[in-house]
Amino acid sequence: TEIYTLSLHDALPILYEGRRNSMTAALTDIGLPPVPCRGTPYLWIPLPKGAPDDRTFCSELLTGSHVLLTPGSCFGSEGKGHVRASLMRKSSVLEKAVKAIAASGLY
């Protein structure tokens, strides 16, 4: 009998893919569909209609829902108009964050 194990290097992409897929679905359900991307532990989310800019949106979101996203403009001009969400936390924490964003009623 052979036993197969995954190294951490092999397991992390699988872990983040699952988180990415579930977060993409959850964010899309609340009207914040992320830009499709693969191979990263982050999601890029276009600003919703009515959001003045990425920094203001992140500030209002933090105040209104206690969820911290990073303004895309922090990563250069290509990130402007987007926010970045990390997938580093447990799935249960990420799910709570999406619920808090939805409950905030922002935008």
Short description, anyone?
It is built from three helices and three strands; from the N terminus they run αβαββα. 45% of the residues lie in helices and 11% in strands. The N and C termini lie far apart (56 Å).
Q: What can you tell me about this protein's structure?
A:
- This protein has a three-stranded antiparallel beta sheet, covered by helices on one side.
- The chain has helices spanning 8-29, 54-65, 91-104, and strands at residues 42-46, 70-71, 82-86.
- Helix content is 45%, strand content 11%.
- The termini are far apart.
- By secondary structure, it is of the alpha+beta class.
- It has three helices and three strands; from the N terminus they run αβαββα.
Question: What keywords describe this structure?
Answer:
alpha+beta; 3-stranded antiparallel β-sheet; elongated; 107 residues; 3 helices; 3 strands
